[in-house]
Structures are given as structure tokens and as C-alpha cells.
Amino acid sequence: xxxxxxxxxxxxxxxxxxxxxxxVTVRHTERFTVVGNHLAQHRELSLTAIGLAVHIxxxxxxxxxxxxxxxxxxxxxxxxxxxxxxxxxxxxxxxxTRERLPSGRVVxxxxxxxxxxxxxxxxxxxxxxxxxxxxxxxxxxxxxxTAEPGTTPPPPPLPEPxxxxxxxxxxxxxxILAELRRDDPRLLLSERDVARLAPAVTAWLERxxxxxxxxxxxxxxxxxxxxxxxxxxxxxxxxxLLPPHLPxxxxxxxxxxxxxxxxxxxxxxRAFRSPAPGLCRDCREATAVPPPLVA
Length: 295
Prior knowledge:
Layout: H1 37-40, H2 47-58, H3 67-73, H4 77-90, E1 94-100, E2 106-112, H5 116-126, H6 167-178, H7 180-183, H8 191-206, H9 211-219, H10 230-240, E3 262-264, E4 271-273, H11 281-287
Antiparallel strand pairs: 1-2, 3-4
Helix pairs in contact: 2-4, 3-4, 6-8, 6-9, 8-10
């Protein structure tokens, strides 16, 4: 017998990946917001900050985005929402300025930027001196890139202490960074990272922050997924959450003058106050020589 010949085509390879996420995409026709991958996949923003930025970008102009309003909408609380807003300000996704109205009331003006890098490039193009001034249209939301994510602005410089001759404070800063792994094993830092971040922690201690408060601030509210760059996360928190300097202590009130000590009168043995022993006023007046009479 002849060998059987298989004529059926082989099974086509499945297009579904063997692991990881699988996207089911449905085209939106209403009530949607375009978000760039530079925000959704930001390497330094926390998940709270990314989610808060997406929520703010989805709101209409004029919507209230103050801390109290956002805290009443979400379960994170005012402290975490305030920290997330500072993160967005540090990376250019948000700006908040205080303005005084004609009525005298002071309000906070909040501006949300859906693409900070594109906005900065547009502003630079407007002020370039080699070209005549041309009024350009306001930047519009751009669709999310499909190949490469957008560029992110460089991180701000780390805080620096005012003085560098305090070995006690420098040793405390190094100990805080080295002991963070006791709060969370994912915060294990190399000696090089500790040496690079220690001056920033010293700046916190210089501003009156207690070591325990610094450690709790750096280790609180960490994301649940593995930390790929713990040193970068700590550098961002040390910069974005830097506390202000303590105000100068008021001058001490002058002490009232001390009264003269008590003395016993040499004439009547009565107590009286005087810087030195002697006679009291009555005895001095009684023994005083009257002035001579003038004829």
C-alpha cells in the first residue's frame, strides 16, 4: 500500500499571545478623552497622579479641581490627592496660580496640560526671535502614539542642603535611606544611590523634618506592582514633597530687671531694699545734717 498523503492544511498559528494582556478595542463615538502614552505610561508619576491627571483632563472647563472637591469624589483622601497634584505640577501636567479678583477675593487658577512637551515646544516657537511673531492656534489634543511614547521633561534637580559641615545630620540621612528596606523590601538601594540621595534627605532634616517623618513620607503609599527604579521614585518624592523652611522663631521677650536685695537697716534694723547695706530712708533723713541758715 502506498503511504497516506495528508492534504489538509496545517493549523494557522494563533494571533492571541500566550501571556500578558489582550486588548478588546471598541471605537468610542461619544464621552471619551484622548490620553497620551507619555502620561499613561509615565515612569516617575505614581498611579494616583496618573489617574488624577486623566480625571482632570476629562472634566469640562470651569470644573472645580481643588483638593477638597477631589477628596469628596475619590477615596484617597486630601493628603494623597495633594501629593498627586504636586507631582503633576512638578512634571508640567498642571499649573496652579493664585489671582486676586476685582472684588478682592483670592482664587486659585488651575491649568491642565494634556501634552506638556508639545505645549513647551509651541511656546518656544512663538517667542523665537528669528521669525516674525505669528499667532498660532491653541494646541489641540493629539491621539496617543502607536509606536513610541512621547518624550518626558527631564526631572528637576535634587534638593541641596544649605550647609555641608554637619556630620551628625549627614549620618542620619544615610541611615534613613539605608533603613527604608525595613519598611518595604522593594526600597533596597545601592551604596551609589544612597550617596546620591543623601544630600536631598539632609536638606529635609535641615528644614526641621524629623527622621521618622522623612522615612514615613518616602515609604508611604507605594504602588502595588514591582518597583523597577526605586531610586528614581525616591528622588521624585524628595523633590516634589520638599517641606518649606521653618519660620524664624520670634525674639525672646526682655526679662524684667531684678529688684534690689533686702538689707537690714543699721539704725533701726528694719528691712529695706538696697543694692548695698546701710540706713533706710527714714534713718537717713533723721541723721541728715540740716543746711546752714543764711543771714
